[in-house]
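README: folding subset

This subset contains proteins for which both the sequence and a predicted C-alpha cell string are available. Records are stored as plain text. Below is the entry for Transporter (830 residues), shown exactly as it appears on disk.
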Amino acid sequence: MFRDRAAPEETGTMTACVRTSDTESAHGPRAQQPHAPPPRKRFRIAGADVSASVAVFLIALPLSLGIALATGAPLQAGLVAAAVGGLVAGRLGGAPLQVSGPAAGLTVVTADLIQRYGWRTTCAITVLAGLAQVGLGCLRVARTALAVSPAVVHGMLAGIGVTIAVAQLHIVLGGTPQSSVTANLGALPAQLADLHPAALSISLLTLLALVLWPRLPGWAGRVARTVPAPLVAVTAATALAGFAHLRLDKVELPSWRSHALVGLPEGPVLGLVAAVLTVTLVCGVQSLLGAVAIDKLSGARPGAAPGVGRSDLDRELRGQGAANIVSGALGGLPIAGVAVRSVANVRAGAVSRNSTMLHGVWVVVAALLLVPVLELIPLAALAALVMAIGIQMVSLNHIRSVTRHREILVYVVTTLGVAVLGVLEGVATGVAVAVAVALHRLARTRITCEEDSEGVHHVHVRGQLTFLAVPRLSRCLHHIPQRAHAVVELDGSFMDHAAYETLNSWLDSHAAHGGSAEVTGRGGQRITEPAATAHCGCRPWTPWRNHQCDTPQEAPRADGREQHQLAKGISAFQQHTAPRVRGELARLAREGQQPVQLFLTCADSRVVTSMITSSGPGDLFVVRNVGNLVPLPGAESGDDSVAAAIEYAVDVLQVKSITVCGHSGCGAMQALLTTPTTGAPTPLKRWLRHALPSLERTVGQGLVGTEGEREGEGDASGPAGVGTSSASSASGTTSTPRIAGRAPVDVVEQLCLTNVVQQLEHLRAHEAVARRLAEGTIELHGMYFHVGEAQAYLLAESTEGGADGGGTATAGQASDEVFSQVTPTRPVEV
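--- output ---
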C-alpha cells in the first residue's frame, strides 16, 4: 500500500496523478501502469517573464535601430542582433537574467570595422570572434577577464561613450558625423553655424522626454513609468514629425530579400586578427562584467526567484560566442550583454531565462510585421537616443569610485586612449598604466621616525613593505636608542619575507638590550607581539589575544555587531585554520573520538581549555558549567547532564584521567559568597547549592569567619547567610589549600581552591568513577588556573606542607592540599 503511494513521486509521475484527478473522479481510479513512460512536462512560462519580456522589447527595439544607425550598418542588422541575442544567448548563456543584443559599447568598434573592411567582412569578423569566445569558454578562462582593473573597464566604456556622443551630436544638429572624435570636434563649430531646426527640434524633444519621463511625480508618474522612457521619447518624436509634416530623414528598412549576409573576410591578415581580438575582448569583458553585476542586482531584490542561481561565467562566454556566430552569419551586429536591458529585465520581475528569449521573439515579430511603422521614425530621434546613452556611459559614480581608490589616472588615460586611438589601443594603454601604477605603489614606501614628548619612538611605514624599502627601514630602526619603547606602525597590506626578517631581527635585538616594541597596523591596532615572545605557546593565538584581551570589551549593540564578529571569526577559521586541521578532523570523523581525559571546568569565557592545556581536536572531553561543580549522585536538584557526561566519559570513552579545574576570580564563587539565601529560588541559587559543601568547608578553615567578624556581621551570619555551626565542627579536620606554599590572597581565592578539592570528593562518589579508581585504571587531578598570571597549578599530595612534585590528588586524605606551580622546566602531563 505504501509502496504504491510512493511510486508516482519516485518515477516522476506525481504531476500526472494530480492532473488526472478529475478523470479519476468521473471514471474511477485507474490502475498504475508499472512500465508506463513518464508524462511529458508542460512548457510553462511565468506571467512575470511575459511582462518583463514586453518591457525589455520596448526598450530594445529603438535602441537596436539607433545603434545600427550609429555604426553605419544596415538597420536590419540591429534587429537581427537583438533577436539572436535574445534567442541564442538567452537559451545557451550562463546568466539567465542578462539580456544580450547590439551594445553601445561596440558601436565605435563596429563602425571602424565597417569603414575599413565593409559590411560583409565585418560580419565575418563577428563570426570569428564568436568562435574565439566559444574556445575561451571551453578553456574555462572566463573569470580571468574579471582580473582587468575596473578603472580600465570603466575608462573603456567612458571613451566609447564620448565617441558615440560626439558623433551623434552632428546628426542631432542635422549634419553628418566624421570618422573620428578629433575630426568630429574639429567640424563642430561649422556644424553649429549651419543648424537644421527640424532635426534639432525632434532631437530636443527626444532628449526632453528621456529626462523628464522617469521623473514624473505622484501616482500618475508611477503608472506612466511602466512604459519605458526610450519608447515614449521615440514615439513622441515620431508623432510630432508626422503631425507637423517635418521634412526629415527617416528609417529605411530595405526588403529582407536584399539583406546582406556574411562574406569571406577580405583584408590584411594582421588587421583582421587585431579586429577579431578587439571584438572578442570588448564583447567578452562587457558580457562577463554585466553578468556579475546582474547577479548582485537580482540577489538584492526582495522575493528573488529561488530557481535563479549565480551565473556560470564560462557558459555565458560560450553562449555569447554562439550568439555572435549566428548573428554574424545572418548579417547582424556583434552581440554582448547589455546593461540597460538587463537591469530593466530584473526590475520588471523576470524569474527565468524565458523573459530574455521571449523578448527575442517579439523583436522577430516586429521586424516582420511592423516595418511600415518603424519607417516613420525620424533618424534624428534615434540619434538623440544613442547620444543620451553615450553620455550615460560616462558615469559619475564610476569616476567617484576610481578617485576614491586612487586610480583616476588609469581611468583618464584609458578614456582618452579609446576616444583618440581606438578601443584596443586605448585598453592596452590603460592596462599598461594600471600595471605601472601598481608597481609604483609596490616600490614606493615612505618611512619616517619621530620621538614624542613621552620618549616613545614612532616608526611610520606608509605603503607596501618590500625588500626595496629594507635599507631605509633598517637605518630608521637602528636610530632608536637601546632600552627605549618603540611603536612600529605599518600602514600597508603587504610585507615580503626580507622585510619580515629585518623587522623581527630588530625586535629580537631590541628586546635583548632591554627595550620594548610593538607593531601596529593602520589606526594603532596591534598586529603582532615582540619577537622575544616568539617561543611562547600562545603565539598562534595572537589575533585572538589582540581581539579579546588587549582591546576593551564593547557593550552589546542592537545592530547585530556580535553576529558580524562571529561571521568574521568563522571566515578567518575557514581561510586560515581549516586547511591545517582538515586532515586531522577527517581522521577523527572516520575513527571517532578517543580522548585521554575528561576535563571539567568553569564556563568562564577567560578559561580556554585548549590553550592552557596545549591540546587539539580529539584530546579532551570537556564539560563546562558555572562554578565547575560536580553534583553528588542523588542530591536534591541534581543535574543529570554532568552525571551523564561523567558516565559516558568513564564507561564509554574509557578516559584515563579526570581533571577538575577551577580558576581565579570565579563569578560563581563570588555569587556564593554574596548572594543571600532569602528570596525566590532562582536557577542560579538552585545550581549553587551544589557548592554549599565547599562554602562550609571554607568557613571551617576560619578565613571566611574572620572576614565576617571584620565586617561586623557576627559569627552567626556568615557569607551568603550560611551559619558557621556546621562548619566549625569540621574545622579541626579540614585542611587549608595553598598555592605553591603561599596562603590564598582573599576569601574568593580560598573558596575557589577549596571548591576544586570538594568537587574531587564529589567525583569519587559517582559509581563509575569509584569502580575505575578501585581498579586503578583512572586518575583524578585538581587544577587551578590563575587568569591574571596566566599560570596553571596542579593539586599535589604533601605531608610536610610542601609540594612533593606531583602525583594523583587524594583529596581529604593529605594533611595539607598544595597546588604546585607548573613551569616550562617542570613538565607535567595534564
